[in-house]
Amino acid sequence: MVHQLILISETMFTLFPLLALVFCCTSIYAETVIPLNGTHSSEINGNGYAFNIPNFDGIDVNPDGSVRYNPLNYPALPFDPLDPEADTAPGTSFNFGTITYNERALTESGKEFIPATNDMFDFDFSDYSHALGNELDIRPPTAGGISINLLDITGPGLMFIDGVPVSLNFTAKVEWNPTLNGFNQTFSPYTGSLEVVNGTFTFSMSDGPQNWKIGARNVDFEFDLIVTVESLVDFSESVKLPSIVLHADIDEVTLTILFDETTNHNYQLESSSTLLPDSWIAIGRPFSQSTHKSPLKFATDSQIGRFFRIRETRLMEQLVVNKIRK
Does residue 3 sit within a domain? Predict the structure, then answer.
């Protein structure tokens, strides 16, 4: 009979509790990733561009000595970094990052919240940095990047129902750093704000110019993207939309928003001249009954009809549409 001898040293005895601790700790931290996917986005100003650096790429000098610049501006997502002006099919999906949270913080029973933190977010706006790299002839164009930090975060954060994420709400200050090969290219970051209302992200980056390390001074930057992550839109409650009342005269139209009932929902006013699904442009920022400013005034146009609608920022397309013609 052959006997197999197993030698267990004192060192191995000390390893057993250590290995047990490692396996135990590994099971405690269960991270879950939510992709930030969307199918439509817009921008606050309605100028067709969500990203704009107007005074960085000098091309020649005017007779008065001022510099003429090639404006570096790109549309709301999605777009092709190699051809930003090319049309994109309506409904094309895109991704702008991820949210990671620890599901062990949840009991998975009823309504729960996990506060938003900077470490939870990994934003991906590489389409903008790649488009910028192509236009500035950076080699390779993908060497450029964007680093984003969230500060002073307030609000409930991620909301869960029975352990399932259903909504995201918070506000934060934003630091935006353009990078090259991982190194910041401005002496100080661009600053602005981010407001997330029921899964709709509204970036507002235009607090002031910054000096770049390559010698460019007082370079302006604007980023005013509005994008909704449909997986973080809470449809759990039915919504009655506010009413729109219009009064037109020769020169302008006065638009008044009336709330028929008390509500804590958030809404977006939009306009279009064609009523096509992808033609709606956001006017201002999302608002609630307590934050809206009414009435609003718009100049009339004798050639172009204009439509308005209000939508609940949960993407429930209940529309209030009114057409204005002089």
Answer: no
